[in-house]
Amino acid sequence: MKTLDHDGFIAALLRRLGVVTLLLIVLIIVIGLLEPRFFSRLNQLNVLRNAAFLILAAYGQMLVMIVGGFDLSVGVVAALSSIATATVMGAMGGMSCSADLSCGWTILLGVSAGVASGVLVGLINGLCVALGRVSAFMITLGMMTVVGGIVVYWTNGVPIYGIPESMTAVLGRGAWFRLPIAFWLAMAIGALLWLILNHTRLGLYLYAVGSNIQASRMTGLPTTRTLLLAYMCSGLFAAMAGILMASRIGSGQAGIGGSLMIQSIAAAVIGGVSLRGGVGKVERVIAGCLLLAIVENSLNLLRIESKLQALVMGVILLAAVSLEQLSLKRSHRD
Amino acid sequence: MINTPHSPTPSLVATGTTLVLGWLRHHALLVVSLVLLAAFSTVNSNVLSIENLRNILVQSSYLMIFAAAQMIVILTRGFDLSLGATVSLVSVVSSMAMVSLGTDSTTLQLAVGLLVAILVSASVGCVNGFAVAVLGVNPFVVTLATWNIVLTFASTVSNGFPIDGLPVAFGDWFARAAPFGLPIPLLITLAILLALAWMLLRTTFGRRLFLVGANPQAAKLGGTRNGWVLFWAYITCSILVAIGAFLLTARMGSGEPNLGGSLTMDSIAAAVIGGVSLRGGEGRISSPIIGAVFVTVLSNGMNLLRVDGSVQQITLGLVIIVALLVDRLRGSTRLV
């Protein structure tokens, strides 16, 4: 055990971040050798921006999975809030406003509408799971169908414009210290989440409820409130991802979060969040998201057909859950 | 017999009421479907035409097969999200097989088509079953992953184009034939459901399906190899899916890469609404039948009233959520 004390900062960091980080580093080296454009400044920004959207959605997925649930509605919630935001902004004349005070109001109200719609869906999910005690997977599957129908009905498949130029320029496409604003935002929220999960009573409740809900209920923890909060946060983070994606492309669209659902689940599972609840670390989930974003980017750079990317995601997810299960079995045997 | 308390003879009316109430409790959905039909017919008189009723019956017979397939895995506390994508893949691949064989012998063509359909679907079922039964991975996530994988195959195998040039006899025999005036899809579905009922109620495998779903620990202690039961549940499910997809392709007259579009949700809806419990081990052979009729009546009525497709989707989602909550309420009144 003596070596453990001496193996330095890098090894300690690796142990903390898990196998996923090692995979991430290997992947970056391999893709960098195969395709030098990977390290170009434009591509870096692109990867990190896409990763930021996924990271936000994965935070929500992680919280819900920590309390022993699932959220299949994150993708459609992102679409819903992008549309709600664009619609409100469009109605307030967002297209024509310049950088003055009225534009500020437009942005504030638009973003609030988007966030509110996401939190509302999360609240309904949470109520069904916490009070109705229905399988989270099924409820969010039903919700995915409902919200998916709503966004198509609302937009008729046509993009909704109205997001002010100033918002697109800053939130959507802006960079600060060589990193996209969206990425900074995702990191800031990640830091906050890390503090909450590791150093507050709420974090303790979240893990406790996920590990053993009966025991938590009997010891008097506020299980209902904790569950509700987890699902509402999932709605909130999915909404933020949706709003950021909308400001990136400049419009609200029904198809905006298409692959967000499966990717957020895959990222969480790769990041070591247990499907049984009670286990999950922010930093590893971020690494998982980066891994997926880089895989997707590599497929694009290597000109692999976009249709095949769903296949790759499916295979990665299947491999990740199988490996998790196998390692679990082995640890039981030991 | 000594301790049997003397029960007063209930009056005829009371017995009748209990019987009716009991019947209603189990078949409430059938009544709701009839009410729904009546309601739709007040807006559009075509709803109750013989033509349309026959149409509903035929349409729902396909969904019955898929809902029954979904029921088999839900009984074991499982799930199959890959169902719809598998239907698409089966449709495309089996059509390609039939077309590539040429037109020398129609019988051979159809036989090979059915065989390919079953093989394709069973290989998906094999992957699902292996991951769930052997590795012990959560069935939701497994089938979520295979759904994505199979969907990619379905949309790339033929570059997204439908497969034309299927033998005419395919549609004649498996979609348009009507021996004794009964549509062939309905007859085949009834035969399949009868076989399924026999399997569920009279064979060891069938009983074990219920047992593994209701109480896996007890099943294990009782000497059941749960893994095998789970594995074969996914295989059985996939074979049913293959047959359903084969029949549906016959109806379409071509191999369609997005044939299964909404079938995953529809089959889950039909099974759950029909009373298959997500807690496992609870479901009857009538569940997929009644559930499928209900879902079909709903969508048929909305189609005739020209309700927007996305609104139909919203309605179906809401119905699923309500059915889940009702299932939960029913469960909480149970003692076990």
Report on the structure:
The complex is a heterodimer of chains A (334) and B (336). By secondary structure, chain A is mostly helical. Chain A contains 15 helices and two strands. In chain A, helix 4 (41-66) packs parallel to helix 9, helix 5 (74-91) crosses helix 12 (223-249) and helix 13 (260-270) packs parallel to helix 15 (306-333). The longest helix of chain A has 30 residues, at 101-130. Chain B contains 13 helices and no strands. The longest helix of chain B is centred in the first third of the chain and has 32 residues, at 12-43. Classes of the chains: A mainly alpha (334), B mainly alpha (336). Chains A and B meet through helix 7, helix 13 and helix 15 of A and helix 5, helix 11 and helix 13 of B.
List the helices and strands and how they pair.
The complex is a heterodimer of chains A (334) and B (336).
Chain A: H1 2-6, H2 8-17, H3 19-34, H4 41-66, H5 74-91, H6 101-130, H7 136-155, H8 165-172, E1 175-176, E2 179-180, H9 181-199, H10 201-211, H11 213-218, H12 223-249, H13 260-270, H14 282-301, H15 306-333
Antiparallel strand pairs in A: 1-2
Chain B: H1 12-43, H2 50-75, H3 83-100, H4 106-134, H5 139-157, H6 168-176, H7 184-202, H8 204-214, H9 216-221, H10 226-252, H11 263-273, H12 286-304, H13 309-333
Helix pairs in contact in B: 1-12, 2-7, 2-10, 2-11, 2-12, 3-4, 3-5, 3-10, 3-11, 4-5, 4-10, 6-10, 7-8, 8-10, 11-12, 11-13
